[in-house]
Amino acid sequence: MKRCDWATKSLQLMDYHDTKWGVPDYDEQSLFRDLSLEIMQAGLQWNLILKKLDGLDDIYHQFDFGYLAYHFEEVRRGALNDVRGIRNRSKIEAILTNAQIMAELEAQNIHFFDQLWQLVNYTPIDHLASNDQVNLDEMKPMMEKFKRMFQKYHFKRVGPMTLYSFLQASGIVNDHDVECFRHDEILKYRGR
Fold first, then answer.
1. Residues 173, 143, 72: CA angle, nearest 5 degrees
2. Which single residue of 65, 93, 128, 157 could bond 102 by disulfide (Cβ 3.0 to 4.6 Å)?
């Protein structure tokens, strides 16, 4: 069975690739978790995040943004001292600030998944990256829409590469290699 090359480097990557990466996600909590993990991963190897995933889920209370927003200081202190996570102050504070933003959106009955998915008519975009190379210039028009949405709500630490990685992880963009068995499976997702 053919997979994307990056997924063959470890069993953890293979499992993530086969079960999660690129699967369209419409759940608020799960999307927040995807975004938070991509923020944590910036500048690091994805394998490290996968190795620390259980600890990150514990530290951030399963990425329950309502809980994190309410317990900002308590979680921040714990995350800074917990070796099971990534102890980068800026990333920790960005995740917790983003949790507050998510909780505020929810309080205003604004659905994060709608804000994202409406930008692509609720249908995953097929292949913006080619040959494992992300060319942000080619994607600029589409990326600009997402960038404006994240800026509108003041999300933290969502630069171009983190944003694009999030779009891939959450299935908004299907960048599985065309030879990969998951590529055609993901194409079957059309709208909610």
1. 85
2. 65
Query: Which residues are annotated as catalytic?
Result: 16, 38, 46
Cβ atoms 160, 143 nearer than 8 A: yes
Q: H-helix or E-strand containing 90?
A: helix 89-107
Q: Which residues, 6 or more positions from 53, have their beta carbon under 8 angstroms from its beta carbon?
A: 37
Q: Residues 6 or more apart from 161 whose CB is under 8 A from it?
A: 42, 134, 136
Q: From the centroid of its chain, how far is CA 1?
A: 26
- All residue ranges of the chain with pLDDT < 50 are none
Other CB atoms within a 10 A radius of the CB of residue 191 amount to 10
- Please write down the HEC assignment for all residues of 107-173: HCCCCHHHHHHHHHCCCCEECCCECCECCCCCCHHHHHHHHHHHHHCCCCCCCHHHHHHHHHHCCCE
Q: Give the pLDDT of residue 190.
A: 63
Q: What is the pLDDT of residue 143?
A: 87
pTM across the whole model: 0.92
Closest CA to 158 of 1, 32, 23: 32
What pLDDT does residue 132 have? Answer: 54
